[in-house]
Amino acid sequence: ARPRVGYFLSSKPSQALVAEEIKKIRVGDIKGLPRVIRAGASVYEAIVSMFLEDVGTLMVVDDEGHLEGVVSRKDLLKAAIGGGDLQKMPVSVIMTRMPNIICTTPDEPVLAAARKIIEHEVDALPVVRPVNGQGKKLKVLGRITKTTITNLFVELGEGRS
Amino acid sequence: ARPRVGYFLSSKPSQALVAEEIKKIRVGDIKGLPRVIRAGASVYEAIVSMFLEDVGTLMVVDDEGHLEGVVSRKDLLKAAIGGGDLQKMPVSVIMTRMPNIICTTPDEPVLAAARKIIEHEVDALPVVRPVNGQGKKLKVLGRITKTTITNLFVELGEGRS
Questions:
Q1: Stronger pLDDT, B85 or B1, i.e. the higher one
Q2: What ipTM score was computed for the predicted complex, to two decimals?
Q3: A73 CB near a chain B CB, below 8 Å?
Q4: Residue B152, Cα to own-chain centre: how many angstroms?
Q5: Which residues contact A131 (CB under 8 A, 6 or more apart)?
Q6: How far does the CA of residue A38 sit from the closest CA of chain B (Å)?
Q7: Of A7, A56, B31, B105, which is the most exposed, with the fewest CB atoms less than 10 Å away?
C-alpha cells in the first residue's frame, strides 16, 4: 500500500484538491476584451454591433469610457418584438443601468465571478476598477462570460490551466 | 518533509489530478431538462417560449419528439429585425436543421461536450440517443449549456461535485 500523506487523509481528497486549484485562478488571469457601445447608440446599432462582434452582452459606456449599463441579447430581443422604431430608440432605454450591474474585478477569484453569473442569472460580468477620485465611476477593463468559464473548464480538463 | 507518493511526482501534479477528476464527469450526470418546441410553431411562439422558460436555446422536435432542429436567441433576434411577420413564419425556416446539429450523449464526458460548445461556437447541445430501428432519428433526453458548465465549475470550486 502507498504511504498516506496528511493532506490526503480526508474522505474525498481529490475533490478538495480540485477546489483548491480552482480557487487560485483570478478574473485577471482569464478575462476577455471588453465589448462596448456608447450610451447614445440606438438599439438597432447595438444589435448590429452584437452580430458583428459575435457577443451576447455589450457594456454601455459614456464618453470617457465609464460603465453606464449592460445590454444583453435578451434585452435586444425583447425590444425587437416590442414594435418600436429600433433606429430611434436609444440603447440606454433598455439597458440594465448602474448601480444595478453585477461586476467583478481582476483580483476576484474566478469562482466568485462564476457564482455571481449563476446567482444573478446573467451571461456576462464587466471586469472593472474604480476611477481614482471620481466617486462611484468604474472603468471597464474586460469581461467574464459563461463562454470564458466554459473555456477555462476545457483548459482545466485538458491539464492546460 | 512529507513523503512523496509516485503519483504526485510529476512536475505539475495538481493540474494532472484536476484534469483527471474533470474527465470522470459524464453528460448524463449533469444534463438539464430538454426545452422543446414543435417544428410547426411560429417564430413568435418560439420567442415567447424562450422568455417563459428563460432559456437561450430551444430544441425543435417533430410530433414524435424526435430532434429536427435547434433555434438560438441569436437566430430569433436575426428573424425579429428581418421585418417579416413573426406570427406567420414557422420556426423551421430559421432553425439549424438536422444533420447539422452538434449533439452529445449521456455517456460522453462533459469535457468533450464543453469542447464542442467552444469549437462550434454554440450555447447549448441537445443530449440525445438514437431511436431503435429508426435510422438516424434521435430522441432528445436533455441539454448541456454554457450555464450547465458554469454551474459545474462552481460546484467543483466549492468541492461539491
A1: B85
A2: 0.90
A3: yes
A4: 14
A5: A66, A137, A138, A139
A6: 21
A7: A7
What residue ranges define each of the domains in chain A, with the CATH number in brackets?
Answer: 25-157 (3.10.580.10)
What CA–CA distances, in Å, run from B19 to A20, A143, A155, B110? 13, 25, 9, 12
Cell, residue A3: 504511504
Q: What is the mean pLDDT of residues A90-113?
A: 96
Which of A77, A125, A152, A158 to substitute to test the interface with B, most B CBs within 10 Å?
A77
Q: What's the rounded Cα separation, in Å, for the pair A84 and A97?
A: 20
Look at residues B72, B45, B83 and name the one whose alpha carbon lies nearest to residue A83: B83
Contact in structure between B142 and B31 (CB atoms under 8 Å): yes
Closest by CA to B145, choosing from A110, A36, A59, A56, is: A56
Q: How close, in Å, is residue B4 to chain A by CA atoms?
A: 8
- As given in the structure block, the three cell numbers for residue A74 are 435578451
Note the pTM of the prediction, 2 decimals.
0.90
Residue of A117, A149, A155 to mutate, testing the B interface (most B Cβ within 10 Å of its Cβ): A149
Cα angle value B18/A27/B152 (rounded, 5°): 45
B2 in contact with chain A, both atoms CB, cutoff 8 A: yes
- pLDDT per position as a tens digit, A100-110: 999 999 999 99
- Among chain A residues, CA nearest to B84: A81
From CA B111, how far away is CA A157, in angstroms rounded? 6
CA closest to B25 among chain A residues: A157
